[in-house]
Design goal:
Oligomer: single chain
Strand order of the largest sheet: 3-4-5-6-7-8-9-12
Shape: rod-shaped
Helix content: 10-25%
Number of helices: 1
Largest sheet: 8 strands, antiparallel, barrel
Distance between the termini: 184 Å
Number of strands: 12
CATH topology of one domain: Porin
CATH architecture of one domain: Beta Barrel
Structural class: mainly beta
CATH class of one domain: Mainly Beta
Length: 281
């Protein structure tokens, strides 16, 4: 009996020991904090489900106090500036070359005073003593270098074709054309017309017999040279031919020229060679 009792007690003790061994891990597992573990994880984090006596609770977060209106900082001013415009540079053809052409100065207008001496060429005359000298002056206006207008006043004296002592005053108006005005020596052509009056006295017998008065209108033409000594002074010489006729009232009653066979005429001609100086300004 004792043997069965001991054997039964031994079994009960082993059972209790085995039950205790199984209960201890369960209790320990209940006391351990829970872990968040994913299946198959090697490490798990601990999750505390209850409070601990050693840990103090976090203070409750308080909402920030609203700043006063005076302490509020105004928001920054944002100025929107558009981006600069896109500039597209397009190649352009170069402008044509500019050539400066100097403006031609207008031609200078010149005035001139011409002083001259000359002589008439009319042959030997009836008595072989014909010849007259002359002196005069002229006012010249030269608006362009190529042309000029000149008015002349001339005085002449000597023996005329008939051998009479004669004095004559003439006024002529002439146009001059300069063929090479840029040269120092200039060639010019002249032409014009004029009037003259003469007083002739027949003194062939040693005393005055008859006095004649004549009036003429004539034309002349010629060619000449002008040498520019300086900008203001020029030397000139020219040869002129003239033809004129009487215009006075006695031309029909007393013709000027009467030949030995009775022919009469009031038309005459001569050549004039003269030279002088012209002062320009």
């Amino acid at each position: 009996m004792s043997t069965n009792f001991r054997s039964r007690a031994k079994r009960i003790a082993v059972s209790l020991s085995f039950a205790s061994a199984l209960a201890v891990p369960a209790i320990a597992h209940a006391d351990e904090p829970k872990k968040d573990c994913e299946p198959g994880s090697w490490f798990c984090g601990e999750t505390q489900t209850g409070g601990s006596k050693d840990l103090q609770p976090l203070p409750a977060e308080s909402a920030p106090a609203e700043p006063k209106a005076a302490d509020r900082t105004p928001p920054p001013v944002v100025v929107y500036q558009p981006p600069p415009p896109t500039v597209v540079v397009q190649a352009r053809d170069a402008p044509p070359a500019y050539y400066y052409v100097p403006r031609k100065a207008p031609p200078k207008k010149e005035w001139g005073l011409n002083l001259h001496l000359g002589g008439a060429m009319m042959g030997k005359g009836r008595d072989g003593n014909a010849g007259m000298a002359m002196a005069g002056l002229g006012l010249r206006f030269r608006p362009i270098p190529q042309a000029a207008i000149e008015g002349d006043l001339d005085f002449a004296g000597g023996r005329d074709y008939n051998g009479f002592r004669r004095g004559e005053t003439a006024f002529t108006l002439n146009g001059l054309v300069f063929l090479n005005p840029k040269n120092t020596t200039q060639v010019y052509l002249l032409g014009g017309f004029g009037w003259s009056g003469a007083r002739a006295v027949d003194d062939r017998d040693g005393f005055d017999k008859v006095e004649y008065k004549y009036g003429y209108f004539g034309v002349q033409a010629g060619i000449g040279l002008e040498f520019r000594l300086s900008k203001a002074v020029a030397l000139n010489v020219d040869l002129r031919g003239l033809v004129r006729g009487r215009v006075d009232d006695n031309r029909r009653l007393h013709p000027e020229f009467v030949s030995g066979d009775g022919r009469a005429t009031n038309t005459s001609g001569a050549g004039v060679l003269q030279g002088g100086l012209t002062f320009y300004w």
